[in-house]
Design goal:
This protein is α+β, with helices and mostly antiparallel strands. It has 16 helices and eight strands. The strands form three sheets. The chain has a four-stranded mixed beta sheet with strand order 3-2-7-8, sandwiched between helices. A two-stranded antiparallel sheet has the order 1-6. A two-stranded antiparallel ribbon has the order 4-5.
């Protein structure tokens, strides 16, 4: 049938925890039982929003167009309703349903993303959350993909449009009969192969968060944290808007990190060994997992072997080890592990660390641990 047109700054360990979300998503994709969908998850938003998300996720769009009150379209409607085959095959794409009808509602038991069932009110004919879901883009789809593409404005319905992530028409399926599931999914697979790897909506949200935090850290000159955030982005997506920014900014952050490392190493002289060694010690944690992790360790080892610095470095190593124990003890106290914290605090009071600032802090704040 044809129609003539439509009717802030946070601690490093917190940052690391956030970035670890990226591998966690990959792990969930590769392991665990995937919840099978009972029906297609139609996009519930404006066409422009679907196009924007498609570009950012690098995934195709599938548009399913159905004319109200026409025999072939009615069969396509019945085919689409609660179609598990199409739901599973198209879960990596954005699917937009367009139909110009208004229908009654009904109660329906549906399975959520968590696999649990609940009763909801839906459009009786398409089982969408409301008729607005399939009505809102009817005019937009016609104007963008039909009116501007044909001389007579003829809209062949029912039909399916497969669009690339860049909003280019890859395939139009129409032969006066409802496009079959196999035809739709075959065209979708071709579009996915041409586009390359895409990401999920959950991954997109994480990428956006990591990118925003990376931008914040770059402005604050927190190079190591910026590098970690952008590395988290690249662990999810290496192309497109976010991947390109992450590639560029992670290289810039790494270059600044290298400059800071060189500046700290230059301070490893008898006159400024404390300042230089302190900065390098802080970098061991900040630069962990980056290409500069080994150069930092090498600089620390070189300082320890330097005859002019050996004695001062040995004292600083003891002092820093005591500070690390102190920080670990504070973390245990925050978690309510008093027994574990006291064990570390007593260790600081031992002979090896007795002369350190950390030991003096323990004696002042925890006098009950000092032996009489």
């Amino acid at each position: 049938m044809s129609s003539k047109g439509p009717l802030h700054l946070v601690p490093l360990l917190v940052l690391a925890g956030c970035i670890l979300c990226a591998p966690a998503i990959a792990q969930r994709k590769g392991k665990g039982k995937e919840v099978r969908l009972d029906r297609v998850a139609y996009f519930d938003g404006r066409l422009a929003e679907a196009q924007k998300q498609a570009r950012e996720r690098n995934v195709p769009i599938v548009i399913l167009a159905v004319l109200e009150g026409e025999e072939a379209s009615d069969r396509f409607r019945d085919q689409l309703r609660d179609n598990r085959t199409l739901a599973q095959g198209a879960r990596g794409a954005i699917v937009v349903l367009v139909n110009n009808g208004t229908h009654e509602t009904k109660k329906l038991k549906v399975k959520g993303a968590d696999g649990k069932s609940k009763t909801v009110e839906v459009c009786e004919q398409y089982h969408t959350p409301s008729c607005e879901v399939h009505q809102r883009n009817w005019d937009g789809v016609y104007q963008e993909y039909v009116a501007t593409k044909s001389e007579d404005g003829r809209w062949d319905l029912p039909s399916a449009y497969i669009l690339s992530p860049k909003n280019e028409i890859a395939k139009v399926l129409y032969d006066a009969q409802p496009p079959s599931d196999s035809e739709i999914l075959a065209a979708l697979r071709d579009a996915q192969r041409a586009a390359g790897p895409g990401i999920t909506l959950e991954e997109l949200r994480l990428v956006q968060k990591l990118t925003a935090d990376g931008q914040l850290m770059m402005r604050a000159k927190g190079w190591a944290d910026a590098y970690r955030h952008y590395s988290g982005v690249l662990g999810i997506v290496a192309t497109g808007k976010y991947g390109e920014e992450a590639e560029r900014e992670s290289k810039a952050a790494l270059e600044w990190m290298r400059k800071d490392l060189d500046a700290a190493a230059a301070l490893l002289t008898p006159e400024s060994v404390r300042e230089g060694y302190t900065k390098l010690h802080e970098m061991t944690r900040a630069y962990a997992g980056s290409p500069l992790e080994k150069p930092v360790a090498d600089a620390l080892k070189s300082a320890a072997r330097n005859p002019e610095l050996k004695e001062a470095v040995a004292a600083l190593k003891v002092e820093f080890a005591a500070e690390d124990l102190w920080e670990d003890a504070q973390e245990l106290l925050r978690k309510g592990d008093d027994k574990g914290a006291k064990k570390l605090l007593r260790k600081i009071l031992g002979k090896r660390y007795a002369a350190t600032p950390a030991a003096e802090r323990v004696r002042t704040q925890h006098p009950e641990l000092v032996k009489k």
